Amino acid sequence: MFILGNFISAVTTVLDYILTIANWLIIIRALLSWVNPDPYNPIVQFLYKMTEPMLAPFRRLFPIHTIGLDISPIFALLFIWFLKLFLIRTLFGFALRFG
């Protein structure tokens, strides 16, 4: 059963890294929105393509036109932090039981 525990631990570690990267991408995008970057810059386009799928569900829940402010990054970050606190810790707990 230790093989299953190691597998769950490895998958959980990779998922934790992915969530950390997503967290930083959203923070960078939010900071860039303050300076109005060139939308044709390849780095800015990459950043938008990577973060838009994460922000779009929260934009549907909290439309910008009703509030006048895009608060979707805040809710996306809260959701990522929730996943890190709940899902990652739970999966590491399973890995320890099987290991």
Using only C-alpha atoms, the radius of gyration works out to: 17 Å
Shape assignment: elongated
Uncertain spans = none
Sheet with most strands: none
Domain count = 1
Helix content: over 70%
What percent strand? under 5%
Let me know the average pLDDT: 92
Number of strands: 0
Q: Given the structure, what is the number of helices?
A: 4
Provide structural commentary.
83% of the residues lie in helices and 0% in strands. It has one domain (2-98). It is built from 4 helices and no strands. The chain is mainly alpha-helical and 99 residues long. The mean pLDDT is 92. The chain is elongated, with a radius of gyration of 17 Å.
Keywords:
mainly alpha, 99 residues
Fold blueprint:
Blueprint: H1 2-32, H2 42-61, H3 64-67, H4 72-98
Helix pairs in contact: 1-2, 1-4, 2-4
Concise structural overview:
The protein is mostly helical. The protein contains 4 helices and no strands.
